[in-house]
Structure prediction request, 222 residues.
Amino acid sequence: MIPVNEMFETIQGEATHTGRPSVFIRLQGCPVGCPWCDTKYTWELDQGWVIDPGVMLTKNRLAADKSWAPMSEDLILELLDKYRARHVVLTGGEPAMENLIDLTSLVIASGRSIQIETSGTFPVQCDIGTWVTVSPKLAMPGNLAVRNDVLARADEIKFPVGKESDIRALHDLIGRGCIHPNTPIWLQPLSLNRRATDLCRDNAIANNWRVSVQVHALAGWR
Ligand code: SF4
Prediction:
């Protein structure tokens, strides 16, 4: 069973798949503890918040809601038929806490594409055809290390940047030698303030990296 907090259809606003109509499936549970996390309601996997899958699908999804529903892979696939988008994004929370091999295989077999957004702190268990976006969360309060095997599996790196020391941390991460040289590295300003966006622009140019601003935030979409 997969712990699902919400499912919704929108446009992917970040990195390589920017602009793609996508069904986002937000999973419950994350022990990483990023202070600036905008989905803190997904952190706890407490049995007290378990609800019926039918209730999860009708609740007001704009309200930050700790409730979640355990769903089978077959039920999730059935629910995907209610949406038009053919790209699926597993996000969180930390989706890699779950074994996603069956779900990602089923989604791919249905003719859709699927992407996982992960912090890199858990082994990624998924179908080989899955697009893996690693957004490494370093030195967070949860004290979880970013794994070298996940960096090596990444189809793209999406790195949150707010200050100069974040760029140094990214260079250190690349220095581990696990990220494939052809893997695109996206810098994502932590906010759209001038300092963070300029830092991303300057370092993208200097290192042949890329810049990902959150298009959905600019457009006022969720
Ligand atoms: S890894 Fe993602 S969900 Fe978890 S605390 Fe950090 S930003 Fe929030």
User: Anything to note?
Assistant: Residues 30, 32-34, 37, 39, 42, 92-94, 119, 137 surround iron/sulfur cluster (CB under 6 Å). The CA atoms of residues 148 and 177 lie 9 Å apart. The longest strand covers residues 2-11. The two ends are 26 Å apart (CA to CA).
